Amino acid sequence: MLEARSRRRRTLGGVLLALPAILWLALFFLIPLGIMVVVSVLTRDASGAGVLPLTLEHYERVFGVFSPVLWRSIGISLVATLVCLVIGYPLAFFISTRQRQWVRQVCLFLVILPFWTNFLVRTYAWRVLLGDEGTINSILSATGLIQEPLQLLNTQFAVVVGLVYGFLPFMVLPIYASVERFDFRFVDAAHDLGANDLRAFLEVVFPLTLPGVFAGSALVFIPCVGAFVTPDLLGGTSGLMIGNLIQRQFGGSGNMPLGSALSVVMMVIVMLTLLAYVRFGTRRA
Amino acid sequence: MAVYDIELRHLVKEFGGAERGKRGYQVRAVDDVNLQIEQGEFFALLGPSGCGKTTTLRMIAGFEHPTSGEILISGRPVQNIPAFHRPVNTVFQDYALFPHMTVFQNVLFGLRMEGTPRTVAAQRVEEALDMVKLGHLAQRKPSQLSGGQQQRVALARALVKRPAVLLLDEPLGALDLKLRKEMQLELKTMQQRVGITFIFVTHDQEEAMTMANRIAVMHNGKVLQMGTARQIYEHPGTRFVADFIGETNFIEGDLVARQAGAGTVKLPDATLIEAQLPPDWSADSGTVTLAVRPERMGIVPEGEEADMPKMPLSVLTGMLVEMNYIGTDTRYTVRLFDRLDIAVREQNVDYEENYDFRVGQTVKIFFPLASASILHRD
Fold this sequence. Notes:
The complex is a heterodimer.
Chain A: H1 2-39, E1 42-44, E2 50-54, H2 57-63, H3 67-96, H4 101-112, H5 119-130, H6 135-142, H7 156-181, H8 185-192, H9 197-208, H10 210-225, H11 229-235, H12 242-250, H13 256-281
Antiparallel strand pairs in A: 1-2
Chain B: E1 6-16, E2 26-37, E3 42-46, H1 53-61, E4 68-73, E5 76-77, E6 88-91, H2 103-114, H3 118-131, H4 147-159, E7 165-169, H5 177-194, E8 197-202, H6 205-211, E9 214-219, E10 222-227, H7 229-234, H8 239-244, E11 249-259, E12 262-266, E13 272-276, E14 286-292, E15 298-301, E16 314-326, E17 329-336, E18 340-347, E19 362-367, E20 372-375
Helix pairs in contact in B: 2-3, 2-4, 3-4
C-alpha cells in the first residue's frame, strides 16, 4: 500500500520532471512535423505555399526527377561515414589504449577542438585549400607534379572531405567509449588460443566494439544525409544533396509542398537508419 | 639431462623502471624463480595476492616477457616465441569467454586458429564439451550460463587444443564454496584422465593441498618452499610458509644443543623442548622460532599428567584463557609465560571422556618431537 503510493508519487514526479521537454517537443517538433506531412500532399499555389486539393505529385517528383539527388545524398553520406570509420577507429583505439589518463584527456580535447571554430568558417577554409588556385593546387604545380590545376572544389570528393572533416569527432567519441570499456583479457585469451594480433582484432576486438562503431556511424550518417552547408560551399552542382534541394524549395524558388515532401523522405531515411541502429547496434554483447 | 614439461631458470620480472621513466619506480614481481615441473604433474603456485604467482603463470603463457631468465617448455626455450605459438593453454580467472560467441564457437575458436579442418574440429569440440558434460548447452551464449558452467567451457576451450601444459589462473576463485569443492575433485579427476601437466595458481592453501601433487609457496616474488602438501605442512621451512599453510603456533626460544636432525630449544621459562631442524640448518646456537600445529598438541588439566601418552614428549605449563566448542573439535587457548597465547585443537571423539576444563585453570600442553619444527628466518 505504502509502497504503491510511493511508486505512484515517483511516477508522477518523473512526469513532472519530463513535462518541460514533453511540451517543448509537442509544440516545436510534433505539431510542425504534422503540418509538414500535411503540406507535403497539398497543391502548390502561385506564392509557393500549399493549398487544396490533395495530391501526391510532389512525391512522384521526389522519386522521379529528384531521385538521382536522393541516391547521391545517400551515397555521399555512406562514403563519408565509411571514411570516418576508417580514420576514426584507429584514432579512437589509439587514444583509449594510452596508459596515462591525462594523455587520453588531451587527445580527446584535440579531437573536439575544431568545434571551437564556427562550422561555416571551417567549411570556407576548405574552399581555400581545394580551389583551383588553392593551397593544394599551388603546392602541386610549384613542385611540378601537375601542369593544369586539379578539379578539387565543386566535386563530390570535396563534399566527402568536408563532411568527414566536420563529423569525424562524432565517430571517434562513441568508438573511444567502446574500446575503453573493452576488456583486454579477451585479447590474451585469443592469443592463448592461437590467434595472432590481426586475427585477435578481427575476431574479438572489433566485434566486441561494434556498439561504438554502430553508434558512431549513425551519428555521422544522419547529419550527413541532411547536410546542406557543406555541399553548398564545396559541392557545386555535381555535389548537390537533398539538403540543398529542401533549402531551395523554402527559399527563392518557393515550393513549400515539394520541400515538405523532400523533408518527409529524408526523415524516413534518418528514421530507418536509427531503426537499423537500434536493431543491430544496441544489442547487448 | 632430464627434460621437464616446464622449466624456469632464474626467472625475473620487473615492472616499472624503463616504462615509468626517471622516477626509478620499480617492482620485482618475480625474483629469481627456479622450477622444474615434470610431465603429468598437477602443480600449484600458492601465495597471497601480489606474491608473483600470476605473473609467473603469465610469463609461461607468453602474456608477459621476462626481464631475465629462461622458460623452457618441453626442453625448448620459449622467451622469444609469442603466446599464440606456445604449446600451452590457459583457463583464465573469470574465464574470459568470448561474450559474442556461443559455447560451441568459443571452444571451436582455438581449432579454427590452427586451421583444423571444419569437420574434424566440430567433432573435437563436441568431444571436449561432452567431457565437461556441457554438450547440451553448445548453442548458449556464455552470459546464459552459471559460473560453474562457464568454468567448464573455459576448461573445454583450453583442453580442446591438446596443449602440453594447461595453465589455470585462480580457476575456482569466482565459484561459491560448495561448487568449488566439487570442481576441485573434478579438476583433479580430469587431470588424471587427460594426463596433461596442470599448473595452477591459487591463494587458497586448502585448494592447493586438495588438488596438487606438488606446491610451490611464493612470497614477494620468490619461491620459499616447494614440495608435496605433506612435506610443506609437516616441515614448513620458514615462518611465512608455516603461517600461510594452515594454523600454526610460534614460540621463540634459544637453541642450546643440536643432534642429528633435531635441536634442543630453551624457552623463556627454562623449559627444554626437542624440535626438528630443517635439513639445511647450519647454526649451532641463537634465537630461533618453533612452529607447532594446534592439532598436533594435547591438553590435560594440571595433575592429570598420568593420562598423557607414554612416549617422549615436550610439556609446557600455562593457563587456559579460552575454550570454544566448534563441532568436530574443541579449541583451547592457553597462555604461556603470562603473555604468549597458544592454540590447541582436540578432536571431540568421545564427549563423556573429556575433562571438565574451566577457564583460568592451570593446564599442561604436550607434543612429541615430530610435531615441533624449528624455522628458518624469512
